[in-house]
Specification:
Helix content: 40-55%
Number of helices: 20
Pfam family, one: HTH_50
CATH superfamily of the largest domain: P-loop containing nucleotide triphosphate hydrolases
Number of strands: 16
Protein name: HTH-type transcriptional regulatory protein TyrR
InterPro entries: AAA+_ATPase, AAA_lid_NorR, Homeodomain-like_sf, HTH_TyrR, P-loop_NTPase, PAS, PAS-like_dom_sf, PAS_fold
Keywords: Aromatic hydrocarbons catabolism, ATP-binding, Coiled coil, DNA-binding, Nucleotide-binding, Transcription, Transcription regulation
GO molecular function: ATP binding; DNA binding
Radius of gyration: 39 Å
Shape: elongated
CATH architecture of the largest domain: 3-Layer(aba) Sandwich
Length: 463
């Protein structure tokens, strides 16, 4: 049997080993002196931070170290005198400036030890700079992410499909740069919405977003709109002149929609602006420096147009720095139902009327090919929302072209198929007739019967 004193000795030995290991594992410098201010222990971190060795410190008093210039000011002397925790900056012979904190340790109400911790100020400054940089990056990322999420929440972007998730993951990176962006995709895929998202999540998000539809403005007028003009530049020009939209987009974004429609003459002028970032108004010889982010969009095959000489190759490579292709809605069917629900919620809020869409309708809309993409889908949802009297939107409320497209599907009952066909026939007959009464006569039914059926199917009849 082990005696009690042996056990105590064994436990004390174990405690000493643990304490020694803990002291040396600490990343802060630790220096311990006795009540006579003589150094009795220190750890490896202290020698690393101060540049001094154990031989220079162990057994030496703080007073000796201060006198021989090893340290600039002995914190232990002040701790013993004032009997409290003291912090100050010590300069060591090695030239290092160190933040030291001395703490008195008492035993039986008498000073027993003074424990001094040391932190290298250069390390502290480095850590502080790293922390500031991290906080700055974090704030910037949070700000960008907040703008990005808020925009997605409030706008029409739905990213449930893998294709859209990939595109939306690119936006924070694209927004940070100021290089030109080229948005490609069919009409109605949401290129303008994506352009606005890129602008609003960029550093110039508070600056103007200027949209120019290159296909909707005649060439001569488009030139003056883009580049501006001075007094007397052409017949009908304003006496005061006018800045072009390129100037108006200063520090913001210039969105050239349908850029493939830009006349060759203007392609040359735009290329010059992008090369020099200078613009010259019509009728002037003076150029002006400009700064803007260019975002272009088109549904036309620019590479084929280049081969035919309809689009300049040099301009294509200038605007095609960051290309993003938006897939058509038929290739991202995972986005259709979420978009329908989102649009319905928005319409319910706008009109103060809560309406739901049946599962059958969602099936039809999800499998439809949507040649007009998101724009067509949005218009269809708004139309049936407004035209349907009931709070539940069913198959009979669908436009005839969409309903007829699915009438042969085996997933629908005979009754549903007959309703779709009947509605389609009534709509066609009304188009061919000058009045509801004439249409009823051609169909061989009473006018009152046809009126009831029009109400049932949500068919609007002009008086």
């Amino acid at each position: 049997m082990i005696e009690t004193e042996q056990i105590k000795h064994h436990n004390n030995f174990e405690d000493c080993l643990e304490l020694e290991a803990a002291i040396h594992a600490c990343q802060e410098g630790i220096y311990i002196c006795d009540s006579d201010l003589r150094c009795v222990r220190l750890n490896s971190a202290y020698t690393r931070i101060t540049g001094l060795t154990e031989d220079e410190l162990i057994g030496k008093t703080s007073i000796e170290l201060e006198k021989n210039g090893t340290i600039s000011k002995a914190v232990a002397v002040i701790v013993k005198r004032d009997r409290k925790v003291v912090s100050l900056i010590q300069t060591f012979r090695s030239g290092k400036n160190v933040l030291v904190t001395g703490t008195p340790v008492y035993k039986d109400r008498k000073l027993f030890r003074i424990v001094i911790t040391a932190r290298d100020l250069s390390e502290l400054n480095q850590l502080e700079n790293q922390l500031n940089d991290a906080e700055e990056r974090s704030e910037r990322y949070l700000r960008e992410l907040s703008l990005y999420k808020e925009h997605i929440k409030s706008e029409k972007i739905v990213g449930n499909s893998p294709q859209m998730k990939q595109i939306l993951n690119l936006i924070p990176k694209v927004s940070k740069a100021d290089s030109p962006v080229l948005l490609l995709g069919e009409s109605g895929t949401g290129k303008e919405v994506l352009a606005r998202l890129i602008h609003e999540t960029s550093s110039g998000g508070d600056s103007p977003f200027i949209k120019v539809n290159c296909g909707a403005i005649p060439g001569d007028l488009l030139e003056s709109e883009l580049f501006g003009y001075v007094k007397g530049a052409f017949t009908g020009a304003s006496d005061k002149g006018k800045p072009g939209l390129i100037e108006v987009a200063e520090n913001g974004s210039l969105f050239l929609d349908e850029v493939g429609e830009l006349p060759l003459k203007l392609q040359v002028k735009l290329l010059r602006v992008l090369q020099d970032f200078e613009v010259t108004r019509l009728g002037s010889t003076k150029s002006k420096k400009v700064s803007f982010r260019l975002i272009c969009a088109t549904n036309r095959p620019l590479k084929e147009m280049m081969e035919k000489g309809e689009f300049r190759e040099d301009l294509f490579y200038r605007i095609n720095v960051l290309p993003i292709t938006l897939p058509p809605l038929r290739e991202r069917k995972e986005d259709i139902i979420p978009f329908i629900i989102k649009t319905t919620e928005k319409l319910s809020s706008r009109y103060g009327t809560l309406k739901t869409i049946s599962t059958d309708v969602l099936k039809i809309l999800e499998s439809y090919h949507w040649p007009g993409n998101v724009r067509e889908l949005e218009n269809v949802i708004e139309r049936i929302f407004i035209m349907t009297d009931e709070n539940s939107i069913t198959v009979k409320d669908l436009p005839s072209n969409i309903a007829a497209d699915k009438v042969s599907k085996d997933t629908y009952t005979l009754k549903e198929k007959m309703q779709i066909i009947e509605r389609d026939i009534i709509e066609d007959m009304l188009k061919q007739s000058s009045s509801l009464r004439e249409a009823a006569k051609k169909l061989g039914v009473d006018a009152s019967t046809l009126t009831r059926k029009c109400q049932k199917y949500g068919i609007f009849v002009q008086n």
